[in-house]
Write a structure and sequence with these properties.
single chain; 466 residues; alpha+beta; 5-stranded mixed sheet; two-stranded antiparallel ribbon
């Protein structure tokens, strides 16, 4: 079962927005409803507290009036006052019933007060007993007054505690909703950004020349369509790259045969096998030999460039001084004709490296130095072994490489503004081949500053095990 994918980025954005906003919307709705309920409770509690206060105050006044009416009757013995006393007592009993309805549980003080009121009979009791009963009614009235105060305080306190509890629950809910919203934002941010980042990575992979693996992109249909276009582009680039490499291989091999014949013929002429040569003829033969050697190096660079992807190492013993001397011998005529001063300071110990790859790198560095050094200039080759690493530098006098060209220096087929003084125009892949040959061994090749010379390439290569 495949995971659902939106059809477009806009659909994904809208879906993410709705889902991210949903918790906040629910929180707002719940808060509004809770605040509405709390407002209703506030009104109810306020109304009940006001009613309790009014009933209590009215009850206190009525009880005082009733006591006054009873004392008046005792003093005057007027039947109208007795009837008025009884009516007022009945009204007080009704108010007591109403007061009991305002509370969930009728307190004992109200029952005691009712009992005291019912037992009052001014027309039948002697004055001393009646005075004692009025005293008991006053005590009950005072107890009822205190109870009413406590009841009001209790309701206000209970309502305040309920408000605090609701406030805490709302704060907790808001915190949870914020956390949920942030989590959803991170999730949808990742969900939206993941396919875009995937495309960026695939484009970077294409930019670095990694064309061997098919490109697959998941996400909205629009993103997947872009992925299909990238896969089409990758296959086209891979096909073009293969055709380019095949062309270079064929051309290099095709050129090697006539070049070998050219070198063989020039060598025979130089050795005067076919007869003696005049001085002018010897100069011409020397030029042919020098150019044929340079042409051979360019062809070998093309062949090496087509095999840069071959990362298999073949370590073998190498003596750097011997390798450098053999390579310099190929440039002897150019060095002598330009009057270059050579300085070589190399460790003559035997090391274990991929000889062919090191030879390719060093050959290109020496060729670069010979061709870009002006007449009567200086070339310096130094190096040795340091903590299991071959550290070798090739420096030459002449024009310094401009700062803006340094980052492009090792790119294939890139040629800077410096004037090449060799007999044949370079292909622009020499330094690229040299760097790839060293990096294939886990090393590095960089352009560095030199104390006295304009250009210096530093080669660092790890030594291999036997």
């Amino acid at each position: 079962m495949s995971f659902w994918q939106p059809k477009s980025v806009l659909q994904l954005l809208l879906l993410g927005f709705l889902i991210v906003v949903a918790p906040l919307g629910l929180a707002i709705m719940h808060t509004v409803q809770t605040l509405g309920d709390l407002s209703e409770k506030n009104r109810a509690v306020t109304a009940k507290v006001i009613s309790l206060n009014r009933q209590g105050q009215g009850l206190q006044r009525d009880l005082l009036d009733l006591e006054r009416r009873g004392r008046q009757y005792q003093a005057l013995k007027n039947d109208e006052l007795l009837d008025l006393f009884q009516r007022e007592r009945e009204m007080i009993l009704v108010k007591l019933n109403e007061l009991e309805l305002l509370v969930e549980k009728s307190p004992s003080v109200l029952a005691q007060l009712r009992q005291q009121l019912v037992s009052l009979e001014p027309g039948r009791q002697n004055p001393d007993v009646l005075i004692e009963q009025f005293s008991q009614v006053a005590d009950a009235r005072f107890a009822a007054s205190e109870w009413l105060k406590d009841e009001v305080d209790f309701r206000i306190t209970a309502h305040a505690q309920e408000s605090d509890r609701i406030k805490d629950s709302l704060l907790l809910m808001v915190l949870l909703m914020v956390l949920a919203t942030l989590s959803l934002m991170l999730f949808f941010g990742y969900w939206i950004n993941r396919p875009i980042q995937n495309i960026v990575e695939k484009i970077e992979r294409l930019g670095h020349g990694d064309l061997g693996k098919a490109i697959t992109v998941s996400g909205p249909q629009e993103i997947r369509d872009v992925g299909l276009q990238l896969e089409w582009l990758r296959s086209r680039l891979d096909k073009i790259d293969q055709q380019k490499l095949q062309f270079l291989r064929h051309m290099s091999h095709e050129l090697k045969t006539p070049l070998a014949n050219l070198r063989e013929g020039s060598d025979l002429l130089a050795e005067e096998v076919l007869g003696g040569l005049t001085r002018q003829q010897q100069e011409v033969v020397t030029i042919v030999q020098r150019n044929s050697i340079e042409l051979q190096r360019l062809i070998e660079n093309l062949l090496d460039y087509t095999h840069l992807s071959d990362q298999v190492l073949n370590p073998e013993p190498v003596i750097i001084t011997e390798l450098a001397s053999a390579l310099l011998q190929n440039y002897r005529m150019s060095i002598e004709s330009k009057g270059l001063r050579m300085t070589t300071q190399l460790d003559d110990s035997e090391i274990m490296v991929d000889k062919q790859k090191l030879k390719v790198a060093l050959d290109n560095l020496i060729s670069n130095a010979v061709n870009y050094t002006p007449e009567n200039g200086e070339i310096e080759i130094t190096g040795g072994i340091d903590r299991g690493l071959l550290d070798l530098s090739v420096a030459n006098s002449g024009s310094a490489i401009p700062e803006q060209e340094r980052e492009h220096l090792f790119k294939p087929f890139y040629q800077g503004s410096s004037v090449r003084r060799g007999p044949i125009k370079g292909s622009g892949i020499g330094l690229s081949v040299a760097q790839e040959s060293i990096e294939a061994q886990g090393g590095s090749l960089q352009l560095v500053d030199h104390a006295s010379l304009a250009v210096c390439f530093r080669l660092i290569c790890p030594l291999q095990e036997q």
